[in-house]
Amino acid sequence: MILAGDVGGTKTHLALFEPGSSPRRPVLDRKLPSRPQPSLESLVREFLGGTSARPTRAVFGIAGPVVGNRTETTNLPWAIDGEELSATLGGAEVRLMNDLEATAWGVPLLAPADLEVLHPGAPEPGNRALIAAGTGLGEAQLVWDGARWLPVASEGGHADFGPRDGLEDELIRWLREKYGRVSYERLLSGPGLADFYRFMRDTEHGEEPPAARERFDQDPDPAAAVTAMALDGSCERARLALERFVGIYGAEAGNVALKFLAVGGVYVGGGIAPRVLPVLRDGRFVRAFTGKGRLTPLLEKIPVHVILDDRTALWGAAAVALGPPAAAPLGARV
């Protein structure tokens, strides 16, 4: 059996595959909450506990920087070591990779129905890029080698945030008082969306009905409350927060496209984008994406797609686990 996993700060999706099968056809898969578990080993044991499966190979996409087949997760108190996981799995070969790298391996497996086109552009043969806001912010590059796209992980979501106008100058000062250093992940994430709303409240931008204040203050997932109130029109402050979030998301997606020269397209993944499609579609994301001064004509040619399938990272991890040498980069240990 082959084991693949997408390990996130909120949930972990694990699946078993028959050797030689399609990466999109698991024989068993489950989503499990990440935070209640003390470690990935514990979570894997729980997943396998109800089966007789003994995986011989496993690949996990993990939200965090992976170096030397080890990582300390960014949004979980876990230190994960591939060798220790191998021992847990009875000696199975284990490869750890960044979750956006896993998603990047999954992009070629997606069907047209799995994507929403935000901007058709005019793609050229060349690199692609991936950006994904969820519990945190991930970014990755897909390097075109003339025959295929090779995913390359990054931790670009932790780069310094750059404000674009007076309101964002106010925002970064507010965030500095709260956190000190301000990265793009501080804004482009679930916790970041909640902070947009708190900033709008503290600086008195937009109307906030009493019911909206109560809902935000009491909801265990305040970012979800902001999204719901923005989309149903019940709170102007929530709408302003989400619109600003989407504008900055588009701007950073454009930054990623420039850094990686992603003339083959930019893919927007993560859990937030599919939930806020009405705002993504209204043009502000694409305007911020393309608004790069002298480089605007270049950005206008780059397609932008939203990934609708929340299993893409799992499919990518499975493709690498199932497919050497075809799906794995040369020299990779899988």
Automatic annotation (TrEMBL):
The keyword Membrane does not apply. InterPro entries: ATPase_NBD, Glucokinase. GO terms for biological process: glycolytic process. Residues 13-37 are annotated as: Disordered. ATP binds at residues 5-10. It is found in: Cytoplasm. Its main location: cytoplasm. It comes from the Bacteria. NCBIfam families: glk (TIGR00749). This is Glucokinase. It comes from Eiseniibacteriota bacterium.
